[in-house]
Specification:
Thrombin, subunit H; 3 helices; 2 domains; disordered N terminus; 15 strands; 254 residues; mainly beta; six-stranded antiparallel barrel
Amino acid sequence: MRPRRLASPLALFLLLASASLSADALVGAAPDQRFADRVAMVLIRRPGEAGFCSALVLDARTVLTAAHCLRPVRDMAVHYRDASGAPIVVPVEATLAHPQYRPDAIRDRVESVDVALVRTARPLDDRFVGATLASDEGPSVGDPVILTGFGATREGDWKSGGALRAVTLAVRAPASTVLVWAADPNGRPAGACSGDSGAPIWSADGKTAVAIAAWAQAPNGRGCGGLTQGPRLAPLKDWIDGARRTLSTAIDRQ
């Protein structure tokens, strides 16, 4: 779920503006405004490259996303649209990745906790509310879950992303206490794609965030829409609560 090369940060804004009118985002997904008050976009850039990730809103100043989305704070922002549809960009003040995040985990075949908190320089709009995080071991293999994000319909086609969409998947094997693996129960293409890193995975009723998307592949290998994987949030609640306090305290002392 890597960012695509763009000419400049301005090009990214033009992309987002056009993407909000596109027919799809996420593979196999449909619009679902139930989650618009709990999901935001994280803009990222570095020399010669720009893109975005999805994020779960924890409170008015904090969102949760995948750690591999982090960049220097000057190269990040939180983005959403206001009630009139106008784009809002909120600067990022601080970030904190989980101490067990390993950026080369896939290459080195080591365990990694791909989650991070992002603290904004000012509060988000009043419409946003803090998401409820799972506190139990569910969901189990076979249970339905809902993935919500801003990602692309096809690998590398960022113009098909930018609008918040949702798709219902089912938890699949292997059973894990720390990860959720999910795919379409009928085998059709569906799931996370470019731009969905950090996208929340919800309980079947849409009320509780159980995981975030951190990795995806196509049905036949590299790409999108076959399998979505990400860390469960229940085992991370203590770290998340502590990291929120750490970020808040550190900023208050400056």
